[in-house]
Amino acid sequence: MPYIGKSPQQGNYSKLDDFSGDFDGSDATHAIASGGTAIDPITPNALIISINGVIQEPATDYTVSGSNITFTTAPAAGDNFFGVALGEGVSIGTPSNSTITAAKLSSAVLTGHTDIGGAIADADLFLVDDGAGGTLRKTAASRIKTYAGTDLTAIADGSAGSPSIANSGDTNTGVFFPAADTVGITAGGTEQFRFGSNPIPGGGKNLVQNGAMTVMQRGSTAVAADSTFAIDRYSNRLIGGGPARWTVTQDTTVPSGKGFGYSMKIDVTTVDSSISTNDYHGVVHTIEAQNLQHLNFNNAASKSLTLTFWARAKKAGLHGGAIYNNDANRSLVFSWTAVSDEWQKVTVPIPAETSAGGINNDTGAGLSIYWSFSGGKYMASNTGAWVAGAYLSVTDAVNDFDSTSNDFYLTGVQLEIGDLATDFAHEDIETTTSKCQRYFWRATSGTNDMVGAGVCTATTIASIIIHFPVRMRTTPTQSDTTPTQFYIYDDASAHYASGVASTGYADEYGDLLNFTTSSKTIGNGAVCVSVSNAILDFSAEL
Question: Considering the entire predicted model, what is its pTM?
Fold first, then answer.
């Protein structure tokens, strides 16, 4: 049949099956179908519904859900029904991954958007261009944590064992935030240093010198008097009239896998089974006061400290020691319980001294660290706090000197700023040796060691100039053994010395020594060497 204009298009209309037989005045919901096949209209507007010849208003007189229609008022029994479906929902599927690119989503497509003005919730989702092939990826705000209008990133504080910023393959190494205005660096779960309001220095963090016991200029030493040095920078204290005696050696017994080559060994040679109230036996390391000014003791900005060391005792039980402030006469007693013949790492927290304990800015003794072997004097409880007075060990500690079998070993001593015990700061032997030589220098100890050069100032005197390898703490005390084993050469002859004496021209940089000899020509140049293990020492120990 001809038409004027375009031919009418046949729509996808379907006459609905009559379900008026189900009307009962109470059931408002009915299934809709066409030819026995369920119909799934898109909206109520996709249906034309007539009840008793009256067209019903979509969304007002009825609603649809899936293939069901629900009337606002349930049709009564005997009511007539007629319906037509104008169309039904068609599934277009879900686009496959990576099929929609950023170019497909222009600003003209995304309308109604507003700038983010406040904090983003962790659950908020974002589409992010991966920057490679233009593929959009979904990510949660918790993975971005960025606030609009800034470049700041808010992340958790983290900890030394679980840093905030870490590599996915090494989750206990990275950066964390231990306190306000403070950033910490951790490796292997242990904090290595921090910077900010309470820093841990990255280099030279150990305030102790020769903590690994690598330098021993004097060699094996028998202790029979108070303040006897053996391992460099460690003095042996023998206070009182008791019989206890011991020998100090540099030993290769060390904790396994910690990087130490040596330990200090205390070998008991004479026992003291009955310690009097006037006796004290121990070893002490003293730090020069001017090296501790940055601790700010007796100031609101005072720094807390942490002491760590490795100890091995033959005798099990309570052992003790102390940190002693020489200028303020204040002490902090510490203790640990030793397990026989086992290396133990001991950690001692040292609180800040904010209102007491000032340390003088000079070359004298600042802080001293004591390890006690036995004693009846200078004992106190371990309270974990600074107290007034000189206390060097804990009350009721065991007596390590009641048997010659009670060897004691010490190594890995470290005193550092902060509340955490970090890994021991190993250093090269030249650095450690130079630090030790500020306090003690053994100029000669073997055959054919060069002592120095000078001039013959008399027929029996050769004045020899000694240059110290480093600036010493103060003008040192010179001592020697077997002076007859020094040999003096001049232009005409060579003779043994018979004595050594200082001329008084000495300071912390060097000394001028007179070697007594014979048959010299005044004005001739002179050279002094050791012949057979002659010892020449210069000491400026604390």
Answer: 0.70
